[in-house]
Amino acid sequence: MGWSALTLDRASKSQDRMKSLKDSGHLFRFAALFVIAFLVFLVIRRYVIPPSFGQYGHYRGAAVTEISQRPLHFAGHDACETCHTDQADAKKAGKHAHVNCEACHGPLAKHADDPTSVTPVKPDTAVLCVRCHSASAARPKTFPQVNADEHSNGVPCQTCHQPHNPAIADGGKK
Prior knowledge:
mainly alpha, 2 domains
């Protein structure tokens, strides 16, 4: 193979490469758009994601401090049992021993601080008891469940059951 044939062969291969690069221009433009979009994402992320994000895992580290600065609403059952020992004793002896007072009576931190400022709500047992004890296939079979309409015929629950210790009261119906 002579010098001129070798040169023609190289020129032909060079033109083939140029032609393939010419056709791939749209791929380079797409790659450039992808890089630009990624850079824009990084810039926007810097302004949107709080600096404390990821400090303690996949959430904001500053959230713990922010939540701890909120005013308290719940006092806890210990605060209730300090003054209401008679109700606490009845509750401890019954099935509701592990139910916190504020689950039924509402948040009472202000009542614990100043008992005259807030009076605890005496809940309507016909509505309140059904929240936990209405028959539902989602509840464990061992959990006490009733169909309220058939069970009581509209009679309030506290007629037969004491809310703090829900055993059947003397002379009450089941």
